[in-house]
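sorry for the late reply, my laptop died twice this morning and i had to redo everyting from scratch. anyway the thing you sent over, i finally got around to it. pasting the sequence first so we're on the same page, its 107 residues, then the predicted structure underneath. double check i copied it right bc i was rushing
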Amino acid sequence: MNLKTKKILIGISAIIAICLTAGVVQAMDMFQNEQVGRVNVAYQMIEGKVPIADSSSDSEVTVYITKTGAKYHLYGCKYLKKSCIPVTLSQAKAWGYTPCKVCKPPK
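ok and here's the structure:
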């Protein structure tokens, strides 16, 4: 293998290493920014704090929104497969979300 080929291979290796590092960083950012709702839900489940729909006030009831939808949902709704962001019922209402007709969260 000549010197030019070695330099090219070193350059390619460096580019691959940078891309892999960037991919890991991007994956971490995605996890932190977009999947934080799922992590919160998992912790709530572990701690036995999965929300119950008939809590005493809107500020205590947790419902779930998605990154792209305009509805709020109960945990476990089929529309929460891609994103699941926990918010209070009062927040969801204030932000203009309306209840899902499938899972029928509190109004």
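The two ends are 71 Å apart (CA to CA).
thats about all i looked at so far, will dig more tmrw
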